[in-house]
Design goal:
- Two copies of one chain form a homodimer.
- By secondary structure, chain A is α+β, with helices and mostly antiparallel strands.
- Chain A has two domains: about 40 residues, Arc Repressor Mutant, subunit A (Orthogonal Bundle); about 140 residues, Chorismate lyase.
- Helices cover about 25% and strands about 40% of the residues of chain A.
- The relative contact order of chain A is 0.15.
- Strand 9 of chain A pairs antiparallel with strand 6 of chain B, so a sheet runs across the interface.
- Chain A binds a DNA duplex (19 and 19 nucleotides) through helix 2.
Chain lengths: ~210, ~210
Amino acid sequence: MPSESELSDELGVSRATVRTALAKLAANGLILRKQGDGTYVNAHVREASAHFGNLWDLVQLIEGNGYKPSIKLVSVSKRRATEKEVLALALETGEEVVCLRRLFYADDQPVILADNAIPLSLLKEPLEDIDGNLHIRDIFQRYFHQKISLAITEIRSTVLGADAGQRLGVESGKSILQLQVTLYGRNNLPLAVGTNIFNDAILRLSLVQAWV
Amino acid sequence: MPSESELSDELGVSRATVRTALAKLAANGLILRKQGDGTYVNAHVREASAHFGNLWDLVQLIEGNGYKPSIKLVSVSKRRATEKEVLALALETGEEVVCLRRLFYADDQPVILADNAIPLSLLKEPLEDIDGNLHIRDIFQRYFHQKISLAITEIRSTVLGADAGQRLGVESGKSILQLQVTLYGRNNLPLAVGTNIFNDAILRLSLVQAWV
DNA sequence: AAGTGGTCTAGACCACGGC
DNA sequence: CCGTGGTCTAGACCACTTG
């Protein structure tokens, strides 16, 4: 790529401005910077599906694999929080959670079964209004009036159960990926916990890391 | 945290300098920045094991789980590259690769079985000299005179084979994580492909993503 | 309204890599 | 040696959040 000074001349901005822009690209692994040498575009990025560590953004994950993503709501309900959920979501025992079960498709093929539990106390709109086909980001914005600011994803290997197997159209008993996600809001409080059963026979889960 | 202006005053540096420092922390999810509000330390980071997307750095991964890491060389040899390796490493058919098989321990418990294949043509020192207990970064620096600049890791779920099961002290047939890593050098050419069998019953593989 | 982080300028010097 | 990116300064204004 052109050097920083060339870019700042051509674009009519200061070098500092060019640098902050390039820094963002570099942070996502899109370009590689080498002191004393130059800046290069990262030709290997296309090989990865989750460029920016967006493990929790299932829509992007499917797109990154070159498929057209779509979401289908399986069920929405409310129930008492389990002990695990009480712990993870910082609830009082006996509090209720909203349960979203959704199925993600890649080109009309089911690939991810996503279960989410969200504290009922955060819900700002009627439960029945929830449009389960939306992006999780928009669901939180619209019905919970919350913004997601942090996600922690734990990746596990597990054996596919009968129920999930049927939903995904895969014989149960197979080895499959499980992404356990905890989402946090702007106030640093937990918004949701989720379990995503991920058919890694169809979708690749690959990450880039650019070295300093 | 103190505001940028406070920090720049206290530390006697310009605000721009403070900003670049904070930007690095934010990129790794260690702090959260909110325009119009302030900068906050991310208390949830400690829940993650691989903060910086370092999926290929197994030593850091083990440390992140709170264990003391150690490496034991199982075998080092050379052989013809497989077809897959020819493709992934951009070799000619029939070229040879150096094969490193290593076992990673967490507090003296085997947790990761790592197989690496590196083009023999890159080797700059005698094969026998290789110290398999070193960090992969140092192995490349010392014996191949190469620096790792990019890594792409693909995460899969698989069934544990008999051989790997024995090495890891786990009964074979279990569901387990497989990390397939491709390392690239400064010149953007592939340095190595690796398959890491990862016992996720002991080690957690968790990642943070800070939202913008 | 006051304070925060986000963006930007126009300079300067340093550390590194390739030739 | 020269050009590259890395670091740094001392200002300025804007966008946003909170009280």
